[in-house]
Write a structure and sequence with these properties.
Mean pLDDT: 89
CATH architecture of one domain: Roll
Strand content: 15-25%
CATH topology of one domain: Nucleotide Exchange Factor Grpe, Chain A, domain 2
Radius of gyration: 38 Å
Low-confidence stretches: none
Largest sheet: 3 strands, antiparallel
CATH class of one domain: Mainly Beta
Length: about 170
């Protein structure tokens, strides 16, 4: 090696060191980028938390309504039985019981509870307590409803108890 090659070699090494340092500086994380990333993640987590909380609150309300309605339905059934058993529809007692039954039905309707009304048997909505062989009825046709069924927001609260033709 010659002596004048050494300074040239040192310059080449110095240039390579500078290039490596530049690359390292570019790859070093910027503290502001890290803070921005943490901030964005925190915002996303909070938004997800808010959405989950709203959903859980709605589900809890729906569960509460469903539970309360399940407990009220036997009372409504008893009012309907009392009305069906009475012969004198002009009696003030009968009219009072009918008024209370209508109020309870209106209350359930306001909550979004709907009575199941259908002519054909659906095993998802009905509970068949009797099958009757009769040619005047079609296959799976509901002959008689023994107990009303109810749904709330597409969820079955209580199936209808029915007699079905085979």
């Amino acid at each position: 090696m010659k002596e004048n090659d050494i300074p040239q070699e040192q310059e080449d090494i110095q240039e390579e060191v500078e290039i490596v340092e530049e690359i390292q500086e570019e790859n070093e994380p910027n503290p502001y980028d890290e803070l921005l990333d943490r901030y964005q993640r925190s915002l996303a987590e909070f938004d997800n938390f808010r959405k989950r909380t709203v959903k859980e609150k709605s589900e809890a309300y729906d569960f509460g309504v469903q539970s309360a309605v399940e407990k009220l339905l036997p009372t409504l059934d008893n009012f309907e039985r009392a009305l069906a058993a009475s012969d004198n529809k002009e009696d003030t007692f009968y009219q009072g019981v009918a008024l209370i039954a209508r109020q309870l039905e209106n209350y359930l309707s306001e909550l979004g509870v709907e009575e199941i009304k259908s002519e054909t048997f659906d095993h998802n909505l009905h509970y068949a307590v009797a099958h009757i062989e009769d040619e005047q009825y079609g296959q799976g046709e509901i002959i008689e409803q023994l107990q009303k069924g109810y749904i709330y927001k597409d969820k079955l609260i209580r199936p209808s108890m029915v007699r079905v033709a085979n």
